[in-house]
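hey all, quick one before standup. I had two proteins in the batch that finished overnight and I want to keep them in one place so we stop losing track of which output belongs to which input. First protein below, input sequence then structure tokens straight from the run.
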Amino acid sequence: SYGTPFHTDGLHEWIKTTTPITLTVTDQGACAVDDVTTYYMNTLVDASYCEEPETCVPLHDYEDPGWIKYTGPFFKEEESCHMIEYWSIDALGNRETIKAQCVSVDDTPPETTKSFGEPNCSPERCDSEYWTVNSSTPFTLTATDNKAGVNETYYRYCSGIDNCSDDWNIYSSTFHVTGLEDGEFRLEYYSKDNLGNDEEIKYEIDYLDNTPPVTTITFPPNNTWQSTDFSVHITDDDHCLDTCYYRVHNGTDWTGWMERECNSDVTIDVDGCDPCLKQNITVEAYAKDCLGQI
């Protein structure tokens, strides 16, 4: 029998190097003898013996060297598929048929990877150390464990780049980062397998940006008279600008939206816009960031 930690899916069995293995013997028959000796042998075998339990049959005979007299619980010190063969003999020389049991020893934690969907912006695009996301960006955690299997995956996040201290969330499906102010944030995550092997906590620093750009026309002042071509200075403030636009109303019609260089001047052609000489001119401008926020 196995102590803890131990895991089975009903067909396959897994233990750790710290799991005690115990052999318990009872003598059968009308005149059972209490003086019984038990022997065992451990053999590292191919993983197929553990994956296909029907192949786990004894490999050794009574006379083969290597049998160890059982004196108490023992442990397996190496990760592998182990075949444990064992048998007992009483004081009258009655020998039990050799039995075999195959078990996988697993001290390796799961491996968790993180991914996220759109919208997102690369560090190169934003001239930043970190990826830029917002609260509509989906985050996905994928854990793999080829042995005892993944039990749970955990995650948490917090503002800043220092270690988080909030309680862990159990991961069940794609999540979004909400409830934080814009700026750098830290996402931490790890997984645990069915034997309690904990993965080392992983983390990533990203930049949360839920704020659209702020565009301001700084010159000329509102409600001023212009009789010649003039420049309109437009500023755009954002963590990661993408494209900037403006349009002009000549008192009668709007132009279409025209792309402009962010944080720069646009020139209004008064001479080429005859109605403009006698009509109010309205200039509108806006910017879009790399996440598509306007």
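OK second protein, same deal, sequence then tokens:
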Amino acid sequence: DAVQLGITESFAPKLPVICDGKAVRLLLDIPDQRKNSLLTVNGDLLPFRCHQSPCAVSVILDHTEYRNIQFQGSKGFQRVELGLHAHSDRVQLSAALYHTRFADYIYLADTGVVEHGTPVRAWTQNDASFSGAEAEATFHLSHGNSGDWDLRLFGDIVTAKLDGHGTRQIHLDVPHGDHAHHHHADLPNSGYLPRIAPARLGADLRWSLGNWRASAGATHHARQDKVADNEAITAGYTLVNAQLAWRADGDDGKAWEVFLDGRNLTDRLARQHTSQLRNHTVLPGRGLAFGIRAWF
């Protein structure tokens, strides 16, 4: 079925987009409760028009966005995915590899131009490819008088690159008082896309006994050095979290829970590479939260 998407964030073009895709999935049953899947998707993004002025400039805290968004025409994507799922009494495992190609992918490019002391970024589009992998495994370690113990391991990685060659030139008219400053910038048609999440690798140990449950885990976010032109590298970091809770279930699905959560227990300095404000803000430091939750 067709799905209408509305991008309403203040920093993004307000573009109503109709996405109509078709998918064919092939499932192959293998003994011992293992399954492989091959998924191919071919989709079309139907023509769309912008419902705002052809050219707009926004100042977003640490940068200026230039939008010359006269995007029209037919867009499309192709996706291939290979997945594996296996489970037994003690282990559950899932993994997937995927590759997606987008025609005229829309993204926010760093132009290298600086105005009002802040960098200028421009909404533009080009062909792009995303390749990635993700995996998760849960091991049921113990079940008995001491409670249920589970260990979960997970990880994911994605690489996003432009599919073209050479460069293209764009022209920028950035307002400055009662006049405009004219700039031009050469944008690459190849290389990495900006603000792509780095690889992650993590582990959680979970315990439950009667009304009690607890967990502790760590997630490592790798250093992101596969960056676009004029984009800074973001250092890696590891976040350690823990939780303890006691839950009481009532009638008709009602329940309440007392909890104690600990976040970033090692108090690491962490910046999200996907955030446009990462040069000015960091993720919260060490924190403890105590509270009561209710379901009714």
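Flagging for whoever picks this up: Residues 39 and 71 are 30 Å apart (CA to CA). The longest strand covers residues 147-176.
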